[in-house]
Amino acid sequence: MADFDAIIVGSGCAGPMAAFELASRGKSVLVIERGNYCGAKNMSGGRLYTHPLREVFPNFASDAPLERRITHERISLMAPDANFTIDYTDQHMADPNHESHAVLRGRLDQWLATQAQDAGAEYINGIAVESLIKQGGRVAGVRAGEDEISAEVVLLCDGANSLLASQAVGTDPPSPAAMAVGIKEVIQLDPSVIQDRFHCGPGEGAAWLFVGDPTHGTTGGGFLYTNQDTLSVGLVATISDLMAAEVPIYQMLEDFKHHPALAPVLAGGTVVEHSGHMVAEGGYSAMPPLAADGVMLAGESALMVINAGYTVRGMDFALAAGTQAGRCATAALDAGDTSLAGLAGYRQALEDSFVLRDLKTLRRFPHFMENTPRMFNAYPQMVRDAMRAVFLLDGEPVKPLRKSLPPLAKKVGYLNLLRDALGGIRAL
Amino acid sequence: MKPITVNVDEYLALNRYQVDEQNAHIELAADPSPTEFAKLIRVCPAGLYRLDSAGQRSFDYAGCLECGTCRVACGSTIIAKWTNPAPSMGVEYRYG
């Protein structure tokens, strides 16, 4: 007889959702979280699409520690000396099904953990699981500190830097091309200043992604999310490309904050935290198996993240995958079979949900980004030059745009433009 | 590499840490390859891997953000050990 029905490693987004499902159905659940409090080791950009939260906690909006609801989507093509932005706002963003919020994980993850605890899950904080106990090839428990604790099923929800996933499902650690590093600073500003600068009301804000100069031309991009009284400002850069960059990533962030288009947005703000975290970038094709005998993976330990350029998603996948993993583990426990065959319903449930459907739909995008370096230098500069041709006047007779624009495309190469445009369309 | 103008230590000083003075949770190989070390200088968001003006290389785990980027970048080359910090140690994000 095992010590627990289920042990869950990690209490970020996936872990507490799984723990909630199991504990609500009367299973004995132990969650082991290495942070002294849940969220202490976690960082996201971040914006959370809340529909997977609503499904389980219909009243989450009244008590979850959410930051500003996103009412503006901004995308910028940033050249070293110019910036071109698209700003989209829509009343439909307020629909419960479409709603998204900026979040800070140091706060959100504590609330999620509380929901699992209230349902009956037991928690140990401040200790990392060092290895998995395996018996006859199947995962049978965990080792943490001096302790060995057994369980019928172990759920790995230990995030992008999982040290246990390869032990669980036998895959190699992710490659530097499949992972990116995120760096972020939280910058404090008066709420009314945030509202003025982002053209939004109290409790509302923006999600803003940048491509080009923020990463000094290497694969990746910049981001800015509005919290209640802070801004989350940072960069994500693919590790394999960053290794040969002209400056370290923390210098890139400093340069980004001082870009003439961003500096006035941050002016007067005080940096209150400097953080770093990995982000899975490989998409569907880089994902490991989601289960093996006695073990399941949910969230970023299974690399469930999409960076589609215009939006970055991971937390919504983790919440939904955690819920499905918890339900499937419950069913497997009831059936008395937590072998790989007994856990097979998990993958099927994700195949039927937005999680694996979306990851599959966008599976070509990481490859496209990686093979389109022009996205990160030539195109932002081409757009800048086109805007100059359109907007800048100096008293000289203007050239018709039909004459001034084609040479800009020629500089990049018509064939390159066509190939990249078609590649992008196919990937999305 | 272009010159570094930012003092990343000033930013790390804003974070909350429980530094484990007894145990290094990350260790480098004895004589790390300069080519591999150059990668770590660029990818570490805490700037823990440094090359000073005299060409001296240094590494200090104390400001680690526990992201694991160095492990992914150089886990098969010059990162000899990468574990999570000992119980209750390491960075504690207040915002995250």
Please give the structural blueprint.
The complex is a heterodimer of chains A (428) and B (96).
Chain A: E1 4-9, H1 14-24, E2 29-33, E3 47-49, H2 51-56, H3 60-63, E4 69-79, E5 82-88, E6 100-102, H4 105-118, E7 122-125, E8 131-135, E9 138-144, E10 147-156, H5 165-169, E11 179-188, H6 191-197, E12 204-212, E13 220-226, E14 230-238, H7 239-242, H8 249-257, H9 263-266, E15 270-280, E16 291-292, E17 295-297, E18 306-307, E19 312-313, H10 315-335, H11 344-352, H12 354-361, H13 365-370, H14 378-391, H15 401-404, H16 406-412, H17 414-427
Parallel strand pairs in A: 1-2, 1-10, 2-7, 4-12, 10-17
Antiparallel strand pairs in A: 3-6, 4-5, 8-9, 9-10, 11-14, 11-15, 12-13, 13-14, 16-17, 18-19
Helix pairs in contact in A: 1-4, 1-10, 10-11, 14-16
Chain B: H1 8-12, E1 16-18, E2 26-28, H2 34-43, E3 49-51, E4 57-59, H3 69-74, E5 79-82, E6 90-92
Antiparallel strand pairs in B: 1-6, 2-5, 3-4
The number of E-state strands of chain A comes to 19
Helix count from the secondary structure assignment of chain A: 17
Average of per-residue pLDDT values of chain A:
95
- Calculate the terminal CA-CA distance of chain B, rounded to whole Å: 30 Å
Q: State mean pLDDT of chain B (0 to 100 scale).
A: 96
Q: How many strands appear in the DSSP assignment of chain B?
A: 6
Q: What spatial order of strands do you see in the largest sheet of chain B?
A: 1-6
- The Rg value of chain A, from CA coordinates, equals 23 Å
Would you state the CATH class of one domain in chain B? Alpha Beta
**Contiguous runs where pLDDT drops below 50 for at least 5 residues of chain A:** none
- Tell me the name of the CATH class of the largest domain in chain A: Alpha Beta
Poorly predicted regions of chain B: none
Task: Please indicate the percent range of residues of chain B in DSSP E strands (runs of 2 or more).
Answer: 15-25%
Which structural class fits the helix and strand makeup of chain B? alpha+beta
Judging by the overall fold, what is the CATH architecture of the largest domain in chain A?
3-Layer(bba) Sandwich
Number of domains of chain A: 3
